[in-house]
Design a protein that fits this description.
This protein is 32% helix and 24% strand. The chain is globular, with a radius of gyration of 22 Å. With 439 residues, the protein is of the alpha+beta class.
C-alpha cells in the first residue's frame, strides 16, 4: 500500500513581509488542555514549539521552524466582572475584537497603542505600549495570566500567585511558555477628545514637560528633512460631542493617510531625490483638527502602508540628545527616509523585561517603507540609543544580543532563572530568543 506524503505546510509571513518561515507542522488548538497535550508531545519528542498571533512583530520573535501554534481559534471572551472592571480573555483574541467586546460591557482598555490588530498575548509578550505619563505598557494592565510551561503543565500567576513568574511572563517574548488566558484590569468606557496640530520641533521640545504632564496622552511625529512635527494630545472628556464626519474620517485616515501616502512612498522609493520635498509638503499640508470618539477609536488608526520599524525606549531626559543624533543620522544616510519618526512617553513599571522597567521613558520609533533600505539607518540609531541606556522594543527590529542587553535590564538574570525553571529543555526557544536571552 502506497502512503500519501503529508502536504507541505504553507509559508508563514509576518505583516511586513520581512520574516518568513515554513513550519514543519501547524496546530490550531481550541483550549488550554489541547495546548498542554501538544506541548507534552513536543517535549517528549524533543521538538520546538512557538505560538504565533497576527504576525505584527518585525523581529523573528514568532518565527516557528518546527511546530507553530496558531492561537486564532482561542479568541473568546471568557468572563467579565463589571463591578471589579476585570475581563478574562483567551490569548488569541485581537485588540480590535477585545475593544468591541469590552464596549458592550461598558468597559475599555485604559490605554492602547496606535494599531489594534495584534493578539492580546502577542501585544503583552513584546511590551506593546501607547503614550501617556500616567501609563505603562499594556502588560501593566494584566491582573493574571494562564501559562502552559515547557513540561506541558498549567501555571496560573498573578501578583499573589507565582509572583516571580508574573513579573517575568507579562513581557515574556514567548520564552516561558504558551499564554492561553489573560485577565485584564479595565476602565469604565470613556470618550477622548483628540487634538492634532502642526508645530515646530523646537517649540515642542521647549514645552515638552508641560505637554506631557498637562495631557492624559501626548505624542508627536517629526518629519525628516524638516523642522516640523505633528503634535497629538488625547484627553478624557464626558461627552462625545464633536465626532468627525464620516467624510472627514475617510479623507484623513483612509485616503490621505493610506492611499495618498502609499503613492508618495512608492514615488520616493523609485525617485529618492523627491523624498525631502515630499516630507516638506506633507509637514506643511497637515491641518489642525479636534474631534471626540470612543477611546479605542481615537487611540487606534488603520495602518495599510507597510513598513519596517525599529523602536527604542530611552530615559525621558535623554530624548533631546537622542533626537539630535537621529537628525544627524538621517542627514548623513546614502538613501532617504520616507516615514516620520514617532515619539511617545510612558510611566515606569516593575515588569522585568519591560522597556519601561523602573524609569520614565521616551520612545523613538523609526520606520522605512517596505522594500526601501533600512539596515544602515537602524544600526546607526541603535548605536546612539544603546549608548543612552536604550532598550529595544521586543517586537521591533534590533540587533542586540544577550550580552549587550543584560546591562540594560536590572532583572535580566532573574528572568533567565524563571525561564530555566519553566522551560529547562528550551521547548519554546527559537533563533530570536536564543540571541536575545542566550541559548
Amino acid at each position: 500500500m502506497t502512503r500519501t506524503a503529508p502536504a507541505p505546510t504553507p509559508t508563514w509571513s509576518n505583516w511586513a513581509g520581512n520574516q518568513q518561515v515554513r513550519p514543519v507542522r501547524v496546530t490550531m488548538p481550541v483550549s488550554t488542555d489541547e495546548v498542554c497535550v501538544l506541548v507534552q508531545d513536543a517535549a517528549r519528542e524533543g521538538r520546538r514549539v512557538k505560538p504565533v498571533g497576527t504576525g505584527h512583530s518585525f523581529t523573528s520573535a514568532a518565527v516557528a521552524e518546527d511546530i507553530q501554534v496558531d492561537l486564532r481559534r482561542m479568541s473568546g471572551l471568557v468572563s467579565v466582572d463589571r463591578e471589579a472592571r476585570l475581563a478574562t480573555v483567551q490569548a488569541g483574541i485581537d485588540l480590535c475584537r477585545l475593544n468591541d467586546e469590552l464596549a458592550t460591557h461598558g468597559l475599555a482598555m485604559p490605554n492602547l497603542g496606535d494599531i489594534n490588530v495584534q493578539t492580546v498575548a502577542g501585544a503583552i509578550s513584546t511590551g506593546t505600549h501607547g503614550t501617556g505619563a500616567g501609563y505603562g505598557c499594556l502588560s501593566t494592565f494584566v491582573e493574571a495570566l494562564t501559562l502552559v510551561t515547557g513540561a506541558g503543565e498549567v501555571l496560573r500567576c498573578s501578583a499573589t500567585e507565582n509572583p516571580d513568574v508574573f513579573a517575568a511572563a507579562r513581557v515574556g517574548i514567548g520564552a516561558l511558555g504558551v499564554i492561553t488566558e489573560v485577565t485584564l484590569r479595565c476602565a469604565d468606557a470613556f470618550v477622548l477628545r483628540a487634538h492634532e496640530t502642526p508645530a515646530l520641533l523646537a517649540d515642542v521640545l521647549a514645552s515638552l514637560d508641560d505637554r506631557i504632564g498637562g495631557n492624559d496622552h501626548f505624542e508627536f511625529y517629526w518629519y525628516p528633512y524638516t523642522d516640523r512635527v505633528q503634535a497629538k494630545t488625547n484627553n478624557r472628556v464626558p461627552l462625545d460631542d464633536a465626532p468627525l464626519s464620516r467624510f472627514r474620517a475617510w479623507l484623513d485616515d483612509e485616503f490621505l493617510s493610506n492611499t495618498v501616502y502609499a503613492g508618495a512612498c512608492r514615488l520616493g522609493r523609485a525617485i529618492p531625490a523627491f523624498v525631502p520635498a515630499v516630507q516638506a509638503v506633507s509637514a506643511r499640508a497637515l491641518t489642525e483638527r479636534t474631534y471626540t470618539a470612543r477611546s479605542d477609536r481615537v487611540f487606534c488608526t488603520p495602518r495599510r502602508v507597510r513598513f519596517t520599524e525599529m523602536e527604542y525606549g530611552v530615559p525621558r531626559a535623554a530624548l533631546p540628545e537622542a533626537l539630535t543624533a537621529l537628525q544627524r543620522i538621517v542627514a548623513s544616510l546614502p538613501f532617504k527616509v520616507q516615514f516620520p519618526v514617532e515619539i511617545r512617553f510612558t510611566a515606569p513599571d516593575d515588569i522585568w523585561l519591560s522597556h519601561g522597567y523602573g524609569r520614565e521613558s521616551a520612545y523613538l520609533a523609526i520606520h522605512q517603507y517596505v522594500g526601501a533600505p533600512y539596515e544602515p539607518y537602524f544600526r546607526a540609531f541603535e548605536r546612539v540609543a544603546a549608548s543612552l541606556g536604550g532598550r529595544p522594543h521586543w517586537g521591533k527590529l534590533h540587533y542586540r544580543d544577550a550580552d549587550s542587553l543584560r546591562p540594560a535590564y536590572p532583572r535580566f538574570d532573574d528572568f533567565l532563572t524563571v525561564r530555566d525553571r519553566l522551560d529547562p529543555s528550551r521547548t519554546f526557544q527559537n533563533d530570536y530568543t536564543a540571541r536575545v536571552l542566550g541559548a
